[in-house]
Amino acid sequence: MLRHFAIIATLCCPLLLLSAAPSAIAAPVQVAAGRAAGAARRDGGAGLCLTAIRSGGFSSVDEAVLLLGRPPGGAVLDKTGGKVPAVNLRGGDPASVGDFSGEGASESPMPFTGAPGAMPPGDDRDLALRLRGYLSVPLPQTLTLGVFAGAPYRLRVGGVVVSESPAGALSSRVSQNVQFGGAGLYPIEILYAHKSGPAFLELSRGPGSAPASDNVELPFGGAFQIVQAAELFPSLSTAAAACAECDSDLDCPGSQSCRDGLCQDCSAPGACSGGGSGGG
Predict the structure, then answer these.
(1) What is the pLDDT of residue 170?
(2) CA–CA separation, 77 vs 83, rounded Å?
(3) pLDDT digits (tens, 9 = 90+) for 164-179
(4) Alpha-carbon dihedral sign for residues 129, 84, 112, 9
(5) What is the rounded distance in angstroms from the CA atom of residue 93 to the CA atom of residue 113?
(6) Which helix or strand (DSSP H or E) is residue 154 part of?
(7) CB-based contacts of 256: which residues, under 8 Å, 6+ apart?
């Protein structure tokens, strides 16, 4: 059975600059309006759902995905789930720092690390994360989404890969311009596959005019801020989300249905009318 936790913590730490070989940044990523799973929400979000495992059985994001979908046992030594208010996670290593800390940064301890308050606690090794939910985009616009990660990662929005770690990079700081074709609630997924070293993961946003970059030594400027809970939703409807992952409706109880890899309360009229899909 999964152990669920509520993450509420504030960790403050200095900035550390890491190095990695740069790679080319693509042109702005297009996310069509039809990829929205529902109408944009303005009722105030609650963050994203998180699944975490401890396992020595992966060496890449793709291999971690396969293990994240399994129950505890075998290669999956432990597994937990819950909800985070924002993607600003820290491990226990003193070097687990980022671009955003202190008041208003919504920092949380990363599961399976030595960070104060981490549930379950761990040793900052051999862990993988998947964060799922929805990003509310109130109007057609271009945003710049930034990820600072201490291990290989992949960011998808509306089912489109927005950015991922440059090949061979152990840590990366990547910002990418994203053009949203319409207002809506867009599925978002972040994968993170950590083997060793400082553990940290941040998702921030800046205006569409901010330059795209993959220079790990160039901190995100003052125009960026952590994507806050008000913009992030763990479910399509206003009902409380259990953050239960699924591959099909058969994995969900009662009147719930599987949309975008999460069990959703679709009992309210139009609650899950935006389409959506199962896990993948």
Answers:
(1) 84
(2) 21
(3) 998 888 899 999 999 9
(4) positive
(5) 8
(6) strand 153-157
(7) 249, 263, 264, 265, 266
Separation between Cα atoms, residue 145 and residue 203, nearest integer Å:
7
The stretch 17-42 carries a mean pLDDT of 74
- Cα(251)–Cα(178) distance, integer angstroms: 33
Could you tell me if 102 and 110 are in contact, meaning their C-beta atoms sit under 8 angstroms apart? no
The pLDDT tens digits of the residues spanning 221-236 come to: 788 999 999 999 999 8
Nearest to 246 by CA among 222, 270, 279, 219: 279
> Dihedral sign, CA of 118, 120, 124, 129?
negative
Q: What tens digit of pLDDT does each residue of 87-138 get?
A: 999 999 999 988 998 888 899 999 999 999 999 999 999 999 999 999 999 9
What distance lies between CA 118 and its chain's CA centroid? 17
Confidence of residue 20 (pLDDT cuts 50, 70, 90): very low
27 contact partners, CB below 8 Å, separation of at least 6: none
Rg (CA), the chain: 17
Q: Report the relative pairing of strands 78-84 and 200-207 from DSSP bridges.
A: unpaired
The Cα 84–Cα 7 span in angstroms is 6
Query: Residues 41, 241: contact at Cβ < 8 Å?
Result: no
